[in-house]
């Protein structure tokens, strides 16, 4: 590749030449390059030859997937499914995937990955094979490298989840986790609880930090104590059980968990002490997983509007492909608290 093309080094991390690079080399507009690729009969022979020479010289690989989606010749979206920890199903991921499959009649190419790095490698392979047109991302994290990689290559994508970065580029739709946790905490306050603990993930998780802020805001609004009433743990019921125990040792009458998996840990911790969720200590979760209403007692949880999120992701993808220069769109959806028996009222005098 010519040395004056940005990203001229080889490998997945290098920026490949773009249509703009070809246009500059051939001394034409980008629309002329597009015509050379899609409607060569519109160009004069000498112009077409000049553009083709620039394409060959630069090694430009047109993103045929985006063109095919515009033409509706192919409607395939790539989606990476992260392997579940310890063989457990990720209920939210599964529900979103089913909703995505039903949105707008698009075909999905689902592939399994173990890490962000492996996911990016698969992106590169699938684009090279012209197997997909665009990608939907989920499980976004602080400074998520996938956003930058796709953005730099002008690959259409939409994310279910914020980028949690100072460089907030890309289209995304997310659920307002802070609002969901606020609703759960407000529900417990209305039930008479005054010492409400929070079971969250370690700091640094964008989603977890956002949900934590919802609890802090509600506690502050009601003038309730928050210092020392938080515990952080991995998103696994077995380790969450120990963290929940530290909150119970402090005499909390209710625990707000930022996921249903953490709420399960609260159930286990209470039963170890001969106590019952909802009767002795109230517990709420987040995600309204399929098992939530099957627990004993059924778990109060925050339901995410996953069908709407999936539909919005597809819509953003279509609009991005139709107008690559349009401003990035970000949208927060409001979740809904589903009240069940696990969030009973505080005992008299608690």
UniProtKB/TrEMBL annotation:
Under Gene3D superfamilies, the record lists: 3.40.50.2300, lambda repressor-like DNA-binding domains
Protein keywords: DNA-binding, Transcription, Transcription regulation
Could you tell me one molecular function GO term of this UniProt entry? DNA binding
The lineage's top-level taxon is Bacteria
Signal sequence interval, chain numbering: none
What are the residue boundaries of the HTH lacI-type domain, all occurrences included?
A: 17-71
Write the protein's name.
LacI family DNA-binding transcriptional regulator
The species this protein belongs to is: Streptomyces aureus
């Amino acid at each position: 590749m010519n040395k004056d093309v940005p990203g001229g080094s080889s490998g997945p991390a290098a920026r490949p030449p773009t249509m703009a690079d070809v246009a500059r080399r051939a001394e034409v507009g980008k629309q002329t390059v597009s015509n050379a690729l899609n409607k060569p009969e519109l160009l004069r022979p000498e112009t077409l030859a000049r553009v083709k020479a620039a394409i060959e010289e630069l090694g430009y690989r047109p993103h045929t997937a985006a063109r095919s989606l515009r033409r509706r010749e192919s409607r395939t979206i790539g989606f990476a499914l992260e392997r579940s920890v310890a063989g457990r199903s990720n209920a939210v991921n599964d529900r979103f995937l089913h909703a995505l499959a039903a949105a707008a009649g698009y075909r999905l190419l689902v592939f399994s990955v173990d890490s962000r790095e492996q996911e990016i490698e698969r992106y590169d392979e699938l684009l090279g094979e012209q197997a997909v047109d665009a990608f939907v991302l989920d499980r976004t994290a602080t400074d998520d490298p996938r956003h930058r990689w796709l953005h730099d290559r002008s690959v259409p994508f939409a994310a279910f989840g914020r980028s949690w970065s100072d460089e907030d580029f890309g289209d995304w739709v997310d659920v307002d986790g802070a609002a969901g946790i606020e609703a759960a905490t407000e529900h417990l306050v209305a039930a008479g609880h005054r010492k409400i603990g929070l079971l969250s993930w370690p700091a640094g998780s964008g989603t977890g930090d956002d949900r934590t802020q919802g609890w802090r805001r509600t506690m502050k609004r009601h003038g309730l104590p928050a210092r020392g009433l938080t515990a952080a743990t991995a998103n696994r019921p077995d380790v969450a059980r120990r963290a929940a125990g530290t909150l119970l040792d402090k005499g909390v009458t209710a625990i707000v968990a930022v996921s249903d998996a953490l709420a399960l840990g609260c159930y286990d911790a209470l039963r170890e002490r001969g106590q019952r969720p909802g009767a002795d200590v109230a517990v709420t979760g987040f995600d309204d997983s399929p098992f939530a209403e099957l627990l004993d007692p059924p778990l109060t949880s925050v339901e995410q509007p996953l069908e709407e999120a999936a539909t919005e992701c597809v819509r953003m993808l279509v609009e991005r492909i139709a107008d690559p220069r349009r401003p990035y769109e970000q949208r927060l959806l409001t979740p809904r608290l589903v009240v069940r028996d696990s969030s009973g009222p505080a005992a008299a005098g608690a």
